[in-house]
Amino acid sequence: DSDLSMRTLSTPSPALIFPPNSPGFQNGRGSSTSSSSITGETVAMVHSPPPTRLTHPLIRLASRQQKEQASIDRLPDHSMLQIFSFLPTNQLCRCARVCRRWYNLAWDPRLWRTIRLTGDTVNVDRALRVLTRRLCQDTPNVCLMLETVIVSGCRRLTDRGLYTIAQCCPELRRLEVSGCYNISNEAVFDVVSLCPNLEHLDVSGCSKVTCISLTREASIKLSPLHGKQISIRYLDMTDCFVLEDEGLHTIAAHCTQLTHLYLRRCVRITDEGLRYLMIYCASIKELSVSDCRFVSDFGLREIAKLESRLRYLSIAHCGRVTDVGVRYIAKYCGKLRYLNARGCEGITDHGVEYLAKNCTKLKSLDIGKCPLLSDAGLEFLALNCFNLKRLSLKSCESITGQGLQIVAANCFDLQMLNVQDCEVSVEALRFVKRHCKRCIIEHTNPAFF
């Protein structure tokens, strides 16, 4: 990484990011935007543009023959750009080495709206530094086109890499650093403070992240309205085990525009944290507190304050939730479309009855591992929730084939049914298949196929 290797030439030179001796490198596939799936150690190199002519006569002859056969060179620039837009980041860098025309096309700013890096051994900090330097050549120190950075499972990503993103990418709208457990609060604060357009943030699995907030300097500068300056709408903090109620309070106060929040396995969150959340974030549409064992019926009473705005709720394995909490949700959140209550063993047929009669637009319901549910609860569902498409009853020991037949006879749009570890007959499964022809049945009955 010497200054000599990073020098700016008269014609900008391409930054190459590729893992040497990696078998998956030749067959990398990307999304509709430029992305990268890299395995192995990432090496950053800078090369000058390919020469326009070859001097040796034999090489020149071979080059003419190849040129005559390469019909792709006849395509106009806009068509080439369209093709390049489907290439991952590492392959796009390789294309820049083919010839001068491809070099200029490969570094067209329109192809660099997204950078995607994955892999445990990727030197992400260095890769981000090289790429951002190259993309900043036309607009010094600023990448105006870069909107999405996805760095998933890169354990070598550190705060230094996030500082690079924060300093160079003011137009960033989406950042995913899931599984990067070496980053800390300070680097995340810098990103949200220096990227005012950031709307999508995924820090799932980042165990050191305990809060989302502006830096002190940004807070002072934007005071007294700094609480409304973070424009994040989507926040995933799954497996952020250290997150506590105080941290959730800070998140809610700074991210008032949240519409999607996922707190799966944030085991220290309690009902008090949810109370803070409802005070500031009244626009939440999707919320997951699954495996938050301290969340109880009182927490669901707070969540119910979202009323008709709430469409998705996951309270899976919240063992303190009973019919009382379900009644709160059913009474006030009548437009609920998705509910995951798997493992909430305190829910009975009475809770399902109240849910079915008040949330008639339910499309997906998971009430698996609720041993107190029986065919009576399924009958309430079948007679009220005609739009039901997905239903999971896994390990509901009291469910029988009679309850399944009632569901199948009324919910014709059913597309997925999970009855694994349930005592249901082959005849009942065949009845479901006859009435719900598009339904995929997950079961453990070897006689049914």
What does this structure look like?
- One of its GO terms (biological process) is SCF-dependent proteasomal ubiquitin-dependent protein catabolic process.
- This is F-box/LRR-repeat protein 7.
- Its main location: cytoplasm.
- Residues 1-37 are annotated as: Disordered.
- With 449 residues, the chain is an alpha/beta fold.
- The protein contains 16 helices and 15 strands.
- It has two domains: 75-111, Monooxygenase (Up-down Bundle), CATH 1.20.1280; 114-443, Ribonuclease Inhibitor (Leucine-rich repeat, LRR (right-handed beta-alpha superhelix), Alpha-Beta Horseshoe).
- 34% of the residues lie in helices and 11% in strands.
- The strands form two sheets. A 13-stranded parallel β-sheet has the order 3-4-5-6-7-8-9-10-11-12-13-14-15, with no helix packed on it. Strands 1-2 form a two-stranded antiparallel ribbon.
- The longest helix is centred in the first third of the chain and has 13 residues, at 57-69.
- It starts with 14 loop residues before the first strand and ends in a 7-residue tail after the last strand.
List the helices and strands and how they pair.
Blueprint: E1 15-18, E2 43-46, H1 57-69, H2 77-84, H3 89-95, H4 100-106, E3 114-118, H5 124-135, E4 148-152, H6 159-168, E5 174-176, H7 185-194, E6 200-202, H8 216-222, E7 234-236, H9 245-254, E8 260-262, H10 271-280, E9 286-288, H11 297-303, E10 312-314, H12 323-332, E11 338-340, H13 349-358, E12 364-366, H14 375-384, E13 390-392, H15 401-410, E14 416-418, H16 426-435, E15 440-442
Helix pairs in contact: 5-6, 6-7, 9-10, 10-11, 11-12, 12-13, 13-14, 14-15, 15-16
